[in-house]
């Protein structure tokens, strides 16, 4: 976020967008896993698609609201206000995320060994 403020060339913006894409891919997988495991803990895995859809609706609604409010604020106030509001909301979201609880699910089946982990030989 702060890097966009100081970007002066195309490559600066390209790197920031690339990093944002990588960040989103990590975030998306983590959110899906947390949602599924939470539903699994409560024996409600059949609701996963519905809950995932609602989550995406909220994300899209927030993105649209941010675009409209950001353009409105940029019209009447200095553009830096959007960066500060984004920073403040990120701090708030981080604080909120500290209250997430990882589900405690015990797996009864064994998983297939990864190709990256070689078995020990004696």
Report on this model:
With 122 residues, this protein is mainly alpha-helical. 68% of the residues lie in helices and 0% in strands. It has helices at 2-5, 10-41, 48-76, 80-97.
Number of strands: 0
Number of helices: 4
Largest sheet: none
Q: Regions with pLDDT < 50 over 5+ consecutive residues?
A: none
Spatial separation of the terminal alpha carbons: 51 Å
Shape: extended
H-E string: HHHH
Output the radius of gyration: 20 Å
> Would you tell me the structural class of the helices and strands?
mainly alpha
The proportion of residues forming helix, as a percent range, comes to 55-70%
Strand content: under 5%
Summarize the structure.
By secondary structure, this protein is mostly helical. It is built from 4 helices and no strands.
Topology, element by element:
Layout: H1 2-5, H2 10-41, H3 48-76, H4 80-97
Give the tags.
mainly alpha
